[in-house]
């Protein structure tokens, strides 16, 4: 029975003797409490232990109540929440798998990017609510359609990342509340009926397998939504408070907390309240940054709940941590109950073992540890060792059952490197992604080259990364690497020295001006980035001011620039990922069409327009989930694949070259200086990771400017006398001279995939 169909009077059959949480007897008297201090050089003295709450008689008597009541006084309500909680499902699944021989058949200690890439190297990134399907057809059924996989075969796509399809959002009383973050606020292991059924998910996995492909699901180790688990935690029920970073505030201190308005269940703390609660020893206070900072909406990472009645008769108020939105309470990975860890591992094993997926994306996995820091400094919340340890546990468990993971970790390159050393097999490319956007927006590749060379120098190789075009998120330009850890470090940029902090400011300002300064169809998203599609980014970079100004005459240049970005991401080691918005060339939807969705400041909805990959519902103006249809510049996949000059057909040629020469598992050995500001050169050894092999050298040259260019390619890794062959045509375009260089000509937005062939006379 779906939750929205639930009638409490049908479920209730009388009082149920649930094993309610026991209350610990109060200690007799006030024991001596010596002050315990942390390291005096770094940490303030530990706050005095709060006095345990007095409990008369040792146990609180349960109240009887109306069966329709949705609070802790109703045993049926508690039972209803427990039955749908993720922690309950995790415990059941763990007992089924524990002690089975299947848990010991796979190595799991070390990440293996190349093994993961061998499973699938070109991914389609889906977004459930934006896919237009046949009338009455579910999202999961549409993804499992043979005709879609036939089209993917022709393009070269080998995996589908479904996006989050399990129930998300929250529970208020007996009713569901909607997702606040595109279903990344998960509240259940069950598939959301809006997207299909578990049987349809399993059928999708079977169809993918028959085409030599795989399916990738999501888990969210950083937070949940406000579902059954959070509601039980608010009530102080059993282990559930241990799932979250939440602290019970004593009634005598409730005056410190803001009032919660009617119709809401919590309110964000302002900075003064956050500091006061920290001073009193309740919370660790301000963190290193406030993600999604919005004045009057989210000024800190902490929120206070309304008073909540528990099954023990006690009314509580809590303050809980949420790195992201208020409806996404953060999971505590080091609570004595280990309830949060159990919940996340159970969710992962359900996707891999019950549904049949091959891999999992770890969302928000860089924020799994927080710790009090020195007096006056923000709490340690990024790059924390607990995050590394937790990621090791998650990724190890996934490898133990034969899968792999990739992480979306927008932190410094060192954090990506260190987390990947024992954690996820692959990491989303937050290194080059803002760099190539900046290169296209400005026609200059200097910042992109700086990012790529810094990445290599710091030990993050491109083979470890998922190089993506558009996904459901904004064009991220936080540039955390430069703006935080390396803020005071000096870099050579545009003929001068500049600090990392100032470099980040320059790049952000130039992206903002280029993509939103005159274009009325892209929007800034909080302090994180810019809401846009790949095609709307290109249009803005070309100076187009309005969506209606993108005429048929403008489309070929947009398509060429789009294919350049595809080649950049595909013609280097690692995974290449793209979305439905990319495949059909979607523009942003007018802001007026998603007015209600963006009213609270989440402008990303303009980039999530509904799209029809197979032209199955040409008359549809919205997806089944209600997303308005956007404008497609390229048309459906079947139409494109019948035209050799279309975006999809030319994309298939790019991917074919990638596969033929195994660039996905190659080794990047150089990003040399260039002769023209718009050029980028990548040098690879096609060695499948074996540095001792006698492997061929491959060179990719890109032109990020709209104008044709001639330039010299020079690298110490180029062998003099070698012939330079353009693989797409088979023609030799030159020979490496004694200065380890050769010349190349490229059209505007051009790219060349080159191989060096040894001089047979040498």
UniProtKB/TrEMBL annotation:
Residue stretches of biased makeup (Basic and acidic residues): 30-43
Annotated stretches, region: Disordered: 25-72
PANTHER family to which the protein is assigned, alphabetical: ALPHA-AMYLASE FAMILY MEMBER (PTHR10357)
NCBIfam families found in the cross-reference section: TreS_stutzeri
Protein's name according to its UniProt entry: Maltose alpha-D-glucosyltransferase
Protein source organism: Microbacterium lacus
